[in-house]
């Protein structure tokens, strides 16, 4: 019996190729998109779930209360030692420092292999006890100086297929490090991604700040503190004890720290502390998958019921010959199953081919686990069954319910074909979803254009950022700067800690003009030289620029700092003294710089201070004129490499770094673009099905209109006004919803576009045009049909 069902189903699909093709196309796109979405959601939900006792692992984070509240995933370096010394509620505690862009050199005979390592950590011994990163060879000796463990993947990159244990490498040309153990490769589903872990005593080579036991006033995002609590210990108890550290170690500071425990299960999802994927985004992705499957099922229903009249005689004959309604119903379910299975096979191929592109777009490393993961295979099987019954049950009940006599005469009433208003409602729902996605896409796209064109208060174009070749201030830095200035195409060169706008910040409390207490706000300190202002086109509103010097004596501050200090005019700040870093720096204010955006447009402009501090220089900023840029870049590389042959040369453009502020938004824009196109395409397939149904229903009406002199244009409008009405109805729902969603989204930006009517007009106009093109062919064919064929009696 089942074999006959599927054999007849296949013959019917071959007979109605257009019907089968449209359904397969719609379902394959929606199921393929659903597979990709489910794969992405499952990947993100699996983050850090593989660690032993993960429910007892926490990261200590800091809530900072000043003139405003800010949040950081880090702590002062001494906190780890204090906890270990004072309390016994932790099984393990470990500091870890993420030190990216390290230079690894390995001598091999006469050659020296050089690698840039972006995943180098310094960690305390307990780090490998807290996290489940097992050793496959050797041992971990993270308490001994100048030792390291390495992953299998990185060991192959450095040493080929030879055993890396007891081999050495040079870290930043500062010391030789011995490898004592090899780790299993870190899973992609982990926010911790160390490829090379150096022992904690070795962190002094990177920065002695992290190993200091009295740096309670400093916090940097490079450092994280993880703990694993003993069984039965509550987080409330620990946080209550941590609260005592504020008055004990920071009694005079206005910058009050609150140390809190963040569960490991929250790290990947909490954007406040740097999480890369919020749970609400995973929910939105899941809803998109459901909506796409829903719209595909709606299309199937519309197209299947549009075919009802042409198949009514088939049903009548089969019923007249004794066919039961039950067998007819399962026959139509079998047809749906054939279409769904065919679409699923195509969807699997589509999703497999597109996954590398998805990984590239979203900077992920998701594996295709459909066949290796039983849960994924089970989810797909469930989707196939649900789609088959949701899409096939309604048409099956309608078609199998025809009366034999009426079916044989071809006199099937509209009521027997299913409610027309139901189809209208389903199509309206499809277009509502599509319009919301289009509005979201247009608003995000305009905001991204706004961020690119926004005047940041400095010149970011054609500025090449090149790292310093030396970690110590010496004459070679200045020598190279002079060489770079003499290159054709180079306009300005400056040595600095960071450019004006960056995600890396040195924020500190300051004392102004001998005031007894520090200011409530913190200042973003930038180490610069006298060429910083002309290189970036920064303007002075009062005073003068910094004079050339070899140490910090003078300071520039921005207009926001002047306002925060409560001064009536920029001139009032001139010649006043600002001290910071525990009184190490006492600098005279000599100039006021016009405000510029020192971070992303998500946040407001911060107080900024700039001073000549050679010890903190890390980069050259090179302003070029773009004429003959490839030649200029080649000359810069040649000069840099000649000065530092033992280093790896690299560069990037400043505007590319600024664009990275909006990576999350750009990723969202890509997702919405893709699914907007899929959604509108599937909605148009549904509209095609609706028009096909209308053509069948209004065939004789069209014939009568033509006999009575009706024009083709009038008949086209008969169909056009139907889809126009549905789209306008959809827009009445989608417009307010889209406005509310995007108005809420734009609030995350301190500076953003104004949400005007233009976006909504473009959305509905574009949808109308696409819909008109979709129904045009079917409507025109019906309008030009010979009225005799429409009116003749069967």
TrEMBL record:
Cellular localisation: Cell membrane
GO CC entries: plasma membrane
Main location: membrane
Chain ranges of the MacB-like periplasmic core domain: 21-244, 432-620
Membrane topology: Multi-pass membrane protein
Lineage: superkingdom: Bacteria
Residue ranges of the TM segments: 20-41, 282-309, 329-355, 376-394, 426-444, 674-696, 702-719, 726-746, 758-777
A molecular function GO annotation: transmembrane transporter activity
InterPro entries: ABC3_permease_C (IPR003838), MacB_PCD (IPR025857), Macrolide_Exporter_MacB (IPR050250)
Protein name: Duplicated orphan permease
Source organism: Chitinophaga jiangningensis
Pfam families xrefs: FtsX, MacB_PCD
Keywords (A to Z) from UniProt: Cell membrane, Membrane, Transmembrane, Transmembrane helix
Taxonomic classification: Bacteria, Pseudomonadati, Bacteroidota, Chitinophagia, Chitinophagales
ABC3 transporter permease C-terminal domain: residues covered: 287-401, 674-787
